[in-house]
Amino acid sequence: MEPSNRTAFSEFILKGFSGYPALEHLLFPLCSVMYLVTLLGNTAIVVVSILDARLHTPMYFFLGNLSILDICYTSTFVPLMLVHLLSSRKTISFSGCAIQMCLSLSTGSTECLLLAVMAYDRYLAICQPLRYPVLMSHRLCLMLAGTSWVLCLFKSVTETVIAMRLPFCGRHVIRHFTCEILAVLKLACGDTSVSDAFLLVGAILLLPVPLTLICLSYMLILATILRVPSATGRRKAFSTCSAHLAVVLLFYSTIIFMYMKPKSKEARISDQVFTVLYAVVTPMLNPIIYSLRNKEVKEAARKAWGSRWVCR
To answer: Rounded to two decimals, what is the model's pTM?
Structure first.
């Protein structure tokens, strides 16, 4: 994965927010708390969904996958970002940069597909309740989740190899707090058309297409909810769906802004802010919106916690 002309340097400098010291001091406690909430919330969901047999359903299988994804996604760069926020030396090795880029691309891309799969699962559960157990079989769940992970890993490895084999001509200051592929490509002094083409095709397949499927699924869900006779039931369903959609739209809108806007050689602070929104804020909100507001998860968590104290 190392380019033949990489003799001038063996590491990149992540400039990040170093031009804004006050912002660094503000971001460190905020991102630390959000990362801690992300780890605790998502880990709790994975543990509870494994321990409680009542949660061994397609919905919680996909939620468990989403939680694992969020933990992996934020862990690819947040710990190093927190160190750099307090340090004057903000470096990452060439190979470390490539690994970080590949893992963040892979987990972020997988989340785009998994959110669409989850919306389809909810559509079948609400709009086709009688056929749901047959349509969403255990085998299909494994196939949908496994395909999302494998395809996105293959895509990300390919994009990373192409990007990191470009000549950088000694330019090694990345104007970002992570080895984000767009920020790295700005340093390349060779032809980036192949990388740009791969990113554009990937962005189209992973952003507008899944988002359209998600919106269509929720439109059909809302149409079904409107036929519910109970006003309380309709209100509860609307509250849940609107919360889901709010998180999904925040995630997709910020990524679409990053990856589908006109390319510019100038690095902007807004790019880093949007990265914080979709890569730090959204993984923190997912367990709160999708699971911790859910009555079944709360009961399962109380049961698991009570059993723990009884065993002691």
So the answer is: 0.86
